[in-house]
Amino acid sequence: MTGTSTGSGDGPMTVSDPAAPLPDERRAQAVELLRRRGVLRVSELAAELDVSAITVRRDIALLASQGLIRRVRGGAAPLARPAPAEPPIGQAAPQPVPQALPQTVPQNVPGTAHHPGSRLTIGMVVPSLDYYWPDVIRGVREAAAAAGTRVVLRGATYQAADERRQLSWLVDSMGVDGLLVAPTTTGQDGEALVRWLQHAEVPVVLVERAAAVGPYQEAMESVVSDHVFGAAMAVRHLAALGHRRIGVVTTMASPTSPHVRRGWRRACEELGLPADGVLDADTVDRRDREWSRVLDGLLDECVASRTTALLVHSDPEAISLVERVQERGVRVPADLAVVTYDDEVAELCDPPLTAVRPPKAAIGRAAFALLADRIADRDAHRPVHRVVIEPRLIVRSSSS
Length: 400
Description:
- The protein is of the alpha/beta class.
- It folds into three domains: 23-78, Winged helix-like DNA-binding domain superfamily/Winged helix DNA-binding domain (Arc Repressor Mutant, subunit A); 121-220, Rossmann fold (3-Layer(aba) Sandwich); 227-358, Response regulator (Rossmann fold), CATH 3.40.50.
- 37% of the residues lie in helices and 17% in strands.
- It has eleven helices and 17 strands.
- The protein is elongated.
- Residues 23-78 form the HTH deoR-type domain.
- This is LacI family transcriptional regulator.
- Residues 1-24 are annotated as: Disordered.
- It holds the Pfam family Peripla_BP_3.
- It comes from Sphaerisporangium rufum.
């Protein structure tokens, strides 16, 4: 029978293995391993001590706080030996005792710092580098630069397998101290990726994504925009202008769409507006070859349902819709008011589009701060943090 120790804070309460060392004994073993072998990665210590990587990270944090070892990128190292005191005048200096193993940090071990106090390195994986995410990345980099931290950025393709490959490279080859990631969380591959992130050797903060893991569905650490609130804010704005039939158009492939739709429906219900019988479409994005045909169908439905205002996610789809509306002789906003979600290029439309603007740079700064706190925190019982930041409504000509 095996299990973890009870009442030690090192894991869930189970029946203990009589042969397993107590936490203090395990930590003493870790200190001795580091003294004899120099720098060791978390995975190496976990294998030597036959415990999880999470337990090792907690032990490292505690031992470092007690001044018994020092933390390095991806693992731990013994304390540097103090320089010998100067001998009294006229007395010969003692000869150094040869060491069986070098005490310097190996230069060919991925993920290890090369001297005490070396700066942190974090990895970041986002699904796109050309829309929405540049401002998030900018926020991360600004905060990291102020803290003297290096950011290694990788762009993925909204595919869990690609994201897993990038993340594994950052951990295994770059030896990053932590990860910021906007992962795919749906489907079998997405669920497997979330499980991998849960057990990663380094701290992880999700960016503009949320996920729950384990039998009790514990939340992972995350920083997100409150897209539900943002969509509801757009509906309230349109309702305040007198619109009673407010529709919604979202993109099927976008992880943001379910939140936008939930906020739209919630606000309609709270305001007593019909959420049924108005244009309500979750459709392809404008890059799809079917977009032109689908767009005309959406506008036909908009007219048939007497929808007078639309919330559209995202900007490119909203701009394309406005252009086709104008070609059909419909005036914006006199005949149809439009609010878009994202505010990446909304101002470039004619007329400029009212838009909900997620706090992208603030998301990046908050995500970095949360990850840095998680890396630095010596408390093994630190609770999970979930940060939610509200978007803003930018009112322009398309709605008023």
